[in-house]
């Protein structure tokens, strides 16, 4: 039966996706329809308000950029994709990107991950040349570059490599590569 192997592979993939969705689905609450998700990440009608307590907790946990008290994390202007979703239809995995205040392209960038109501962690040790290159309601893909000897800071030739992050309950799993010296 030549069709059996692809059919079984498709069936296994579908079962894995359904199990992942079932495991990551938030528990039902007694809140009325239209209410906000669990306190900690939401605010002003957003699933991920960058002024929320869990965002601030995440930034405190990773500490200031380069460990220097004179530097701070600044929300990246431009796409903060997951912060634009509106309650009550929040994605299972949300992210926010922060740059170093007064930094350049080579300055550390932090990508923090959240689920509704909770900070989950940082994708890796903050490094320069980091960007979110893709996302779904269940995953985030982060792409990294790095300078090689002789490269100008504005034009690194190392990489790119990407890591794929996905959440199951309160754990985040990573698949893929990281830049040299990170990990």
TrEMBL record:
Keyword NAD: no
Stretch forming the signal peptide: 1-30
Alphabetic keyword roster: Cell membrane, Lipoprotein, Membrane, Palmitate, Signal
Statement: the UniProt record of this protein carries the keyword Acetylation: no
InterPro entries the UniProt entry points to: LppP/LprE, TAT_signal
Name by which UniProt lists this protein: LppP/LprE family lipoprotein
């Amino acid at each position: 039966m030549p069709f059996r192997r692809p059919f079984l592979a498709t069936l296994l993939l579908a079962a894995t996706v359904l199990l992942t969705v079932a495991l990551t689905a938030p528990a039902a609450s007694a809140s009325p329809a239209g209410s906000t998700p669990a306190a900690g990440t939401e605010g002003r009608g957003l699933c991920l308000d960058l002024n929320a307590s869990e965002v601030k907790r995440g930034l405190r946990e990773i500490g200031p950029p380069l460990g220097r008290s004179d530097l701070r994390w600044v929300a990246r202007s431009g796409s903060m994709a997951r912060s634009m979703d509106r309650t009550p239809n929040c994605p299972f995995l949300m992210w926010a990107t922060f740059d170093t205040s007064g930094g350049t392209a080579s300055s550390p960038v932090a990508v923090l991950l959240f689920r509704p109501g909770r900070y989950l962690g940082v994708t890796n040790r903050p490094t320069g040349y980091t960007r979110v290159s893709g996302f779904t309601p269940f995953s985030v893909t982060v792409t990294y570059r790095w300078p090689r000897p002789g490269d100008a800071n504005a034009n690194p030739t190392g990489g790119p490599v990407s890591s794929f992050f996905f959440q199951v309950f309160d754990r985040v799993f990573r698949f893929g590569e990281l830049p040299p010296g990170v990990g």
